[in-house]
Amino acid sequence: MKKILFILAIATIGVACEKEHEHKNLCPVVSEKAIPTSVSSAFQGKYPNVIVEKWFNKDNKGYCALFNLNGKETKVLFDNIGNFQKEEMDQKGQHEDDDDNGCQCHTDKD
After folding, report:
1. Among 104, 87, 88, which residue's Cα sits nearest to residue 96?
2. pLDDT (tens digit, 9 = 90+) per residue, 6-40?
3. Residue 89: what are its φ and ψ, rounded to 5°?
4. Is 59 left (phi over 0), alpha (psi -120 to 50) or beta?
5. C-alpha to C-alpha distances, 12 to 1, 15, 25, nearest whole angstrom
6. The predicted structure's pLDDT at residue 10
7. 109: helix, coil or strand?
8. Which DSSP string do the residues of 31-60 spell out, in sequence order?
9. What is the CA radius of gyration of the chain?
10. What pLDDT does residue 89 have?
11. Which of 28, 31, 43, 74 is the most exposed place for a label (fewest CB within 10 A)?
């Protein structure tokens, strides 16, 4: 009986975690070529010689860049015309916007 309860508990946790992940509204990944020149120039001005791992389109209102800075995964947001908005660093490799509006630039290593 204990084994059955244990299996049911594990299955319930697994389903709950998967459903939580399904509900995330993720920002689409975009190619570097799709980034406006004003945004890529602003990025290079602020972070010279840094290579972007992934770019994300943030609700058609801006672009998020994911890269490594001093051993920490970093995400920065620029608006569509290249104005810097914010920077987030995380050693775990998970970045999500802290606002409840729009998509999340979720960057787990898939």
Report:
1. 104
2. 555 455 554 444 444 454 678 899 999 999 999 99
3. -120, 145
4. left
5. 17, 5, 23
6. 56
7. coil
8. -GGGS-HHHHHHHHHHSTTPPPSEEEEETT
9. 18
10. 85
11. 31
> Model's pTM, two decimal places?
0.66
Q: Letter for the amino acid at 6?
A: F
Distance, CA of 100 to CA of 25 (rounded, Å): 10
The single residue listed with the structure tokens 């630039």 is: 105
Averaged pLDDT of the chain: 77
How long, in residues, is the chain?
Answer: 110
Residue 55 in this model has a pLDDT that exceeds 50? yes
Residue 15: which residues within 8 A CB-CB, separation 6 or more? none
CB 65 within 8 A of CB 55: yes
| Alpha-carbon span 90 to 85, nearest angstrom | 17
H-only helix segments in the chain: 2-22, 37-46
| Cα(105)–Cα(66) distance, integer angstroms | 9
